[in-house]
Write a structure and sequence with these properties.
Length: 240
């Protein structure tokens, strides 16, 4: 019994040291070590490339559409191609993950964040439909100490500009970029200019341990090392 208690105490101390070493957006300054995958969690996972049981199948039926619909008002659907079929993982939601200011993933299309897609290939801003405040763009927020950036509501930044403290709703992520989006057909992709270094074509990923989060991996190799079950997804623009 004493040996087991001592063993548990050692494992707890090791886990705490790993979590304390991370820099991740969370619920205040003390929780800047909570949401990106930690080596402790990853060590407990089986290496799984994809988990179909986690996938949210597209729902049938219809839902009342808001007034003012237009052809360029879109939802962002998150999909994963598996051999001969494409599965719907979810949609980028208009709601935040609790106390983070980061847009979450939802299973319900009628909860989707609606964006107005401009013409042209990009990179460009994505205005949020119906948002009239100064923070009216869907952008990405992060910094060089993170493995990923995160979808947030932000003020506008210039094309090819590095992260700026222009204002977001994510208090733990003050640095953001708005002109990061490009479209090829109906596929939405993103770039990220780090605080130092060359432009990054980010990989958009989902991690089954944190299904509310959509990760725009700026350091995909490091991200995958600590999130073995994370998988890359595609963002598709679909009519709202």
């Amino acid at each position: 019994m004493i040996f087991n208690i001592q063993k548990l105490a050692i494992l707890t101390a090791v886990a705490f040291s790993y979590v304390s070493a991370l820099n991740i957006p969370g619920h205040g300054a003390a929780a800047l070590q909570a949401r990106e995958p930690s080596p402790v969690v990853a060590a407990r996972e089986e290496v799984r490339s994809f988990e179909p049981s986690r996938v949210i199948q597209a729902r049938g039926g219809s839902h009342p559409q808001p007034s003012g619909s237009s052809s360029n008002k879109k939802c962002i659907k998150i999909t994963k191609k598996i051999v001969w079929t494409t599965l719907t993982i979810g949609y980028l939601s208009e709601n935040y993950i609790y106390r983070t200011g980061i847009f979450k993933v939802t299973s319900n299309k009628w909860d989707c964040l609606k964006v107005v897609v401009p013409t042209g290939s990009g990179p460009f801003d994505l205005p949020i439909y119906g948002e009239n405040g100064s923070k009216k763009y869907l952008g990405l927020a992060g910094h060089d100490g993170l493995k990923a950036s995160y979808p947030v509501k932000t003020r506008q930044t210039g094309v090819n500009s590095r992260p700026q403290n222009v204002g977001t709703d994510a208090s733990d992520l003050p640095l953001s970029e708005s002109a990061v989006w490009s479209v090829n057909g109906n596929t939405l992709t993103a770039i990220w200019w780090p605080e130092s270094g060359a432009k990054i074509n980010v990989k958009t990923m989902v991690w089954p341990q944190q299904m509310d989060y959509l990760y725009f991996a700026t350091k995909p190799a490091q991200f995958s090392q600590t999130a073995h079950s994370a998988y890359e997804v595609t963002l598709q623009l679909t009519n709202a």
